[in-house]
Amino acid sequence: MFSRILIANRGEIAVRIIRACKEMGIQTVAVFSQADSEALHVSLADESLCIGPAQAAKSYLNKEAVLSAALLSHAQAIHPGYGFLSEDPAFSALCEEKGLRFIGPSAASIRAMGDKDEARRTMQAAGVPVIPGSSLLSDADEALAWAKKIGYPILLKARSGGGGRGIRKIESDEELLRAFPLASAEAQSAFGDGALYLEKYLFPVKHIEMQLIADGQGNVVCLGERECSMQIKNQKVLEESPSLKVGVGIRKKMEEVCQRAANAVKYEGLGTIEFLLDQNGGFYFMEMNTRLQVEHPVTEFVTGLDLVKWQIRVAAGQPLDFTQSDVRLSGHAIECRVNALPGEKGAGRVELLHIPGGPAVRFDTALYQGYALSPFYDSMIGKLVVHAQTREEALRKMHAALCELVIEGLEHNAEFQIALLNEPEFLSGEYTTDFLQRRGK
Ligand code: ADP
Ligand code: ADP
Ligand code: MG
């Protein structure tokens, strides 16, 4: 096992990883930007190193600075968290070159899945159902030809897109002609890659994803699905496990497909395969996220496993000590993402913080009283996660916890989440990915 790990991230996920390391007896090294010297992950880690200015491109995304920090602090491994360097194959390769273990899959697996176009082709070859769509588009005329074949509406997607960005819905030839150069230029500036492809816009559908872990010794184990259909502009807002629309039959089929998908890219580590599920129980591969995911706590609650600890063990070469038939999904878990809203006074300072408690109530956050939120980073400030025997109980528990949560000094979306919990379409479990869009969100 590693004795020292560098965490190349910030915020709640850095704190989450540091806690797992402490429980495993592993020393931790934090890196931080000049805007984050007061951040919680810095004070919780055993050692911390400043790696550059506030802009992520110059600090958290600065591969050389992160690698130097790891070598200077004698870390043996780097945990990238999510976002930032977590899905950068070049970074994974650089780590291995410097003799550092990247806690995640090989550069080849990340590359195979991170290129969303290549991933579609690899999955198709492995017999995984994919969403009808094109290969890479060289120009707008080629896009028009594909759209004619597939039929509108379509989604124009950036090959290297992620985080809900780089996706446009298109309804007509005129719109496609206009959008193509804009989308390509936007993708170039956002992801450093202007390449586009298109997919049939499936509707109405649910976003269902399967968590898996592979130990590189032939064991690929699926850990249940998460439903993430509650989205604003293709970004997840609330997640739950299990999904009311995934019974034993669909789950089993999805597990078989995930096994095939993981084996096709010789996958090692923790990963998530995202699907769209239609009204007839058909599901289609959307993408694979080759990292720890924001909503991993709901899976931790229903499986009773600590996914971060397992991710670290597997990276250290330990085999899984459980098989598919050992996995028991128990009860129901829900996560609400608590996001800061753009306030009138800028980023805001936490003047008063009260975190709800009680059995199976978890709030993952890097906030503390007096903390000044930095405008440079993601607006997600916490994740409230609950677990109970039934969905009804979990909903009541979430409602109570959201009502109890107090974060004074900044605007946030807890009221919005409370309102969501009372929506009949959500309560019935019938909601699809377009739900909030229909509400004007
Ligand atoms: P999850 O399902 O884990 O929430 P998301 O797609 O919402 O996955 O992304 C998680 C985090 O990673 C978010 O902070 C998101 O902004 C970031 N992210 C993911 N992919 C990219 C990308 N290609 N470029 C920039 N940020 C990304
Ligand atoms: P990202 O890498 O940004 O997470 P995804 O390809 O996973 O991008 O898509 C994000 C969201 O966009 C999905 O969860 C879903 O709601 C919607 N979406 C993506 N592809 C389609 C599609 N072909 N039809 C309908 N909705 C889609
Ligand atoms: Mg996605």
Structure description:
There is one protein chain. The radius of gyration is 21 Å and the shape is globular. By secondary structure, the protein is an alpha+beta fold. It has 15 helices and 18 strands. It has three domains: 4-103, 3-Layer(aba) Sandwich (Rossmann fold), CATH 3.40.50; 132-200, Dna Ligase, domain 1; 206-438, 2-Layer Sandwich (D-amino Acid Aminotransferase, Chain A, domain 1), CATH 3.30.470.20. The structure holds adenosine-5'-diphosphate (2 copies) and magnesium ion (MG). Magnesium ion is lined by residues 274, 287.
Task: Give a quick summary of the entry.
This protein is of the alpha+beta class.
Question: What is the second-level CATH architecture of the largest domain?
Answer: 2-Layer Sandwich
Write down the CATH topology of the largest domain: D-amino Acid Aminotransferase, Chain A, domain 1
* Total number of beta strands: 18
Number of domains: 3
Arrangement of strands in the largest sheet: 13-12-9-10-11-14-17-16
Distance between the termini: 46 Å
CATH class of the largest domain: Alpha Beta
Small-molecule binders = adenosine-5'-diphosphate, magnesium ion
Model regions low in confidence, pLDDT < 50 over at least 5 residues = none
Q: If you compute it from the alpha carbons, what radius of gyration comes out, rounded to the nearest whole angstrom?
A: 21 Å
